[in-house]
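Annex B. Sample input.
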Amino acid sequence: MQSVLLQHKITSFKRGCSNLINQKSRTIGRSFRIEERWLNIVNEEAEREGISPNALVNRVLQDYCIFGRNTKRFPTITLSQKFFSQVIASCQEEKLRTIAIELGVKNVRDLFNTLGLDPNPENIFYLIKELLSHYSNWFTYSYHIKEKMQIFHLRHCYGKNWSIYISEMITTVVSTCLNIKPKIELSEETVTIHIPTDQHVRKLES
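Annex B, continued. Sample output.
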């Protein structure tokens, strides 16, 4: 096995996902031996994205530490978007609502307990912005404040039934964990969540 020495900096993470979220990052020097074929792929991908191999490796490590390693603790599967869309479209709306309500809080609490997180506003918003949007690809995410309302706008391509599931799940989680009843608007491809800024909800920094 041919190996090459890769020098790079990695972000120093402390144990526990709450520290990953809240701790200010610093970098430290480390040396690793990596198979040449993987390093070649890193170099090719970094060049394609217009970033340094160091930045790409750091991002891969970050994705694994925050999300990848924890997916092995849960029974998850990967489906194509087309197949998933067809499965969701075939479900009855009321059944989806029931599942979202029943499993929403249960699964989120299980996830938070596994990651060592408290169900507070910061971590609920982290769930929406990072765990469900960035890492799980449930939707794309945007956030802004307008007329004393915090607005979370979620976009996807999985049809109205997926909008129904997302809206019911997030409403249940926010209502139960934060004692806040959000206003929800949904369409075929979007879910918009409105939460008053005066409801003791910490504003999410972009």
